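Q: Given only this backbone (286 positions), what sequence would you predict?
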């Protein structure tokens, strides 16, 4: 059972999540897709009304039914949107000419490509490689989706380069910009991020954090915009210093815990039993 997990997010959250879908359907059916109208309808629908976050845009499947993950493509987002996902974690890397590409890493490349080289490539042999402009277009098309960023960089210079591009591409539209949910990797990154834009919702993901679980809880206590903490699922289930006591310390702050990356319902249920709210997933669907 979920016991105390739901205390961090009121029951009304589920109703708001459903309302987001209904509003999006209304906007689509009535061809009302201007940012002004869409923004006025979805600004109360926050990402953490959703338990599932589609990891790297979510998985697709090849002709043999094999799972294709880490795609970060428009096709992955489109397909998983049709399955009910509304929150998408997307990986970013800088190209050799300093532009943001939607890609987990540069494995398979002898050297980091230029943006022109990246945009001429395909992912998993068939899907066009995507960049930030492609992502913004799909965010405009679907005004009820949120993008959780995984920019990989934790040094100030590359954090600034990455998020300055996100701020620029959404320039003039706080409605659009506020649907980006940055993940920070350590406490100092928040200050660097705020120099560019004070995003209203932030996730503290711990896979690069040097802080202990107790230090994490103490840090986010005074940071109300950090609305969630993300932890590797194995640490939550197997490491004593994380586990239920840590989850409760975060939930007691009215924040939620997400786990990554979880692709079977049994593991998700085990995580729920210790108070985890949601998961990043390739294959689970709402």
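A: Predicted residues:
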């Amino acid at each position: 059972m979920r016991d105390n997990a739901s205390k961090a997010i009121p029951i009304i959250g589920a109703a708001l999540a459903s309302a987001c879908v209904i509003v999006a359907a209304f906007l689509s059916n009535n061809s009302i897709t201007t940012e002004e109208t869409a923004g006025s309808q979805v600004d109360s629908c926050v990402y953490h009304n959703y338990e599932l976050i589609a990891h790297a845009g979510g998985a697709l499947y090849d002709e043999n039914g094999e799972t294709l993950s880490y795609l970060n493509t428009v096709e992955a987002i489109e397909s998983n949107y049709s399955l009910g996902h509304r929150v998408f974690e997307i990986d970013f890397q800088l190209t050799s000419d300093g532009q943001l590409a939607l890609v987990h890493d540069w494995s398979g490349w002898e050297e980091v490509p230029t943006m022109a080289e990246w945009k001429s490539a395909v992912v998993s042999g068939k899907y066009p490689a995507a960049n930030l402009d492609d992502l913004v277009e799909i965010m405009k098309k679907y005004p009820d989706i949120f993008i959780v960023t995984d920019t990989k960089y934790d040094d100030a210079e590359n954090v600034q380069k990455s998020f300055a591009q996100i701020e620029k591409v959404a320039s003039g539209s706080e409605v659009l910009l506020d649907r980006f949910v940055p993940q920070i990797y350590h406490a100092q990154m928040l200050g660097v991020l705020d120099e560019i834009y004070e995003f209203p919702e932030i996730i503290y993901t711990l896979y690069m954090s040097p802080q202990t679980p107790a230090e994490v809880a103490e840090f986010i206590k005074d940071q109300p915009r950090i609305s969630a903490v993300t932890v590797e699922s194995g640490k939550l289930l197997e490491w004593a210093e994380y586990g239920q006591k840590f989850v409760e310390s975060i939930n007691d702050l009215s924040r939620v815990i997400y786990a990554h990356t979880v692709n079977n319902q049994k593991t998700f249920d085990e995580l729920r039993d210790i108070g985890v709210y949601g998961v990043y997933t390739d294959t689970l669907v709402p």
